[in-house]
Amino acid sequence: MPRVVVDVMLKPEILDPQGQAVANALPRLGVNDVASVRIGRRIEIDFTGEPDLDRAREIADKLLANPVIEDFTVRLVETDEAAEARS
Amino acid sequence: MTARVGVVTFPGSLDDGDAARAVRIAGAEPVRLWHGEAELHGVDAVVLPGGFSYGDYLRCGAIARFAPVMEKIIDAAGAGLPVLGICNGFQILCEAHLLPGALTRNQHLHFRNRDQILRIETTGTAWTNTFQPGQEVLIPVKNGEGCYVADPATLDELEAQGRVVARYVGGNPNGSQRDIAAITNQAGNVVGIMPHPEHAVEALTGPSLDGLGFFTSVLKHLVGTPA
């Protein structure tokens, strides 16, 4: 059964101090060619039946993301089991 | 009759005990409310205390907003019930859309715990009517996610309508936009504040007694409100 993946990211205009902290640590790894890092959240949802993207969007809008500061995208991905079952 | 002020306990609330104590010192009867119970027990006002409701999972306040008691509080707040959200309570009020904007990670990423001077900008709310406009008060601040953000139009509207309740003075502890420490809704009955007035009500434990004013304000407000 495909899985619904919701990606939640801070809106571009909202400062991401976590991402900045990570970006600032990169030179210590010898990485000097990264302009910016932004950190978000990936949520995987498995429905009991057929995946329902509209329902997932509603969940994301009401709970998973705060539309004041965050944007989200909803997509279907194949789970490993589904891919294996077909091969 | 003594006013009855509800104090909600969520799983992970920390300051519910201090909030109830502040209510009592102000001269009201604290009524403990449980997150899982959709019942306000006829209280005259509600305090949402500080802490880490539901472990701050997902976002601070995001899950508490859906607690059974919150459904009642959201309805009652719309009908004029005075509600004060302190710290995590402020975050819950924003998540519940009772207040605009959001509270995000402190810009410097550090948890800040210190005594903080605030300037009271609006005394026209249920929770600040015993202060003088422009009065400076000393109240502890302690948060990791207290950076208030909203889009510029919302910030302008808050300012234009006199809904910025308090601002940080002498250094902004978390990067909040326009030094905002507390805001109110249009009706002035719902106030969210990041610092902790309930920790400044006794000389033994607080840096001042300035916090008491928030709790005596709601009593004054209730006396003036026809039942």
UniProtKB/TrEMBL annotation, chain A:
GO terms assigned for molecular function: ATP binding; phosphoribosylformylglycinamidine synthase activity
Record bears the keyword Nucleotide-binding: yes
Enzyme class: ligase
GO cellular component term of the entry, any: cytoplasm
Keywords in alphabetical order: ATP-binding, Cytoplasm, Ligase, Nucleotide-binding, Purine biosynthesis
Keyword DNA repair recorded: no
Localization: Cytoplasm
Leader sequence segment: none
Documented EC number(s): 6.3.5.3
Pathway noted in the entry: Purine metabolism; IMP biosynthesis via de novo pathway; 5-amino-1-(5-phospho-D-ribosyl)imidazole from N(2)-formyl-N(1)-(5-phospho-D-ribosyl)glycinamide: step 1/2
Catalytic reaction list: N(2)-formyl-N(1)-(5-phospho-beta-D-ribosyl)glycinamide + L-glutamine + ATP + H2O = 2-formamido-N(1)-(5-O-phospho-beta-D-ribosyl)acetamidine + L-glutamate + ADP + phosphate + H(+)
A biological-process GO annotation: 'de novo' IMP biosynthetic process
InterPro entries linked to this entry: PurS (IPR003850), PurS-like_sf (IPR036604)
Similarity annotation: Belongs to the PurS family.
Subunit structure as annotated in this protein's UniProt entry: Part of the FGAM synthase complex composed of 1 PurL, 1 PurQ and 2 PurS subunits.
Stated role: Part of the phosphoribosylformylglycinamidine synthase complex involved in the purines biosynthetic pathway. Catalyzes the ATP-dependent conversion of formylglycinamide ribonucleotide (FGAR) and glutamine to yield formylglycinamidine ribonucleotide (FGAM) and glutamate. The FGAM synthase complex is composed of three subunits. PurQ produces an ammonia molecule by converting glutamine to glutamate. PurL transfers the ammonia molecule to FGAR to form FGAM in an ATP-dependent manner.
Name of protein: Phosphoribosylformylglycinamidine synthase subunit PurS
Species whose genome carries this gene: Micromonospora sediminimaris
Automatic annotation (TrEMBL), chain B:
Keyword Nucleotide-binding in annotation: yes
EC number(s) stated in the UniProt entry for this protein: 6.3.5.3, 3.5.1.2
Gene Ontology CC annotations of this record: cytoplasm
Coiled coil: none
Active site: 87, 196, 198
InterPro entries named among the record's database cross-references: Class_I_gatase-like, PRibForGlyAmidine_synth_PurQ
Keywords assigned: ATP-binding, Cytoplasm, Glutamine amidotransferase, Hydrolase, Ligase, Nucleotide-binding, Purine biosynthesis
Pfam families registered for this protein in UniProt: GATase_5
Subcellular location: Cytoplasm
Any one GO biological process: 'de novo' IMP biosynthetic process
Keyword Hydrolase listed: yes
GO molecular function per UniProt: ATP binding; glutaminase activity; phosphoribosylformylglycinamidine synthase activity
Catalytic activity: L-glutamine + H2O = L-glutamate + NH4(+); N(2)-formyl-N(1)-(5-phospho-beta-D-ribosyl)glycinamide + L-glutamine + ATP + H2O = 2-formamido-N(1)-(5-O-phospho-beta-D-ribosyl)acetamidine + L-glutamate + ADP + phosphate + H(+)
Pathway assigned to this chain's UniProt record: Purine metabolism; IMP biosynthesis via de novo pathway; 5-amino-1-(5-phospho-D-ribosyl)imidazole from N(2)-formyl-N(1)-(5-phospho-D-ribosyl)glycinamide: step 1/2
Subunit-level organization: Part of the FGAM synthase complex composed of 1 PurL, 1 PurQ and 2 PurS subunits.
Role this protein plays: Part of the phosphoribosylformylglycinamidine synthase complex involved in the purines biosynthetic pathway. Catalyzes the ATP-dependent conversion of formylglycinamide ribonucleotide (FGAR) and glutamine to yield formylglycinamidine ribonucleotide (FGAM) and glutamate. The FGAM synthase complex is composed of three subunits. PurQ produces an ammonia molecule by converting glutamine to glutamate. PurL transfers the ammonia molecule to FGAR to form FGAM in an ATP-dependent manner.
HAMAP family cross-referenced by the UniProt entry: PurQ
Record-given protein name: Phosphoribosylformylglycinamidine synthase subunit PurQ
Protein's organism: Micromonospora sediminimaris
UniProt lineage: Bacteria, Bacillati, Actinomycetota, Actinomycetes, Micromonosporales
Gene expressing this chain: purL_1
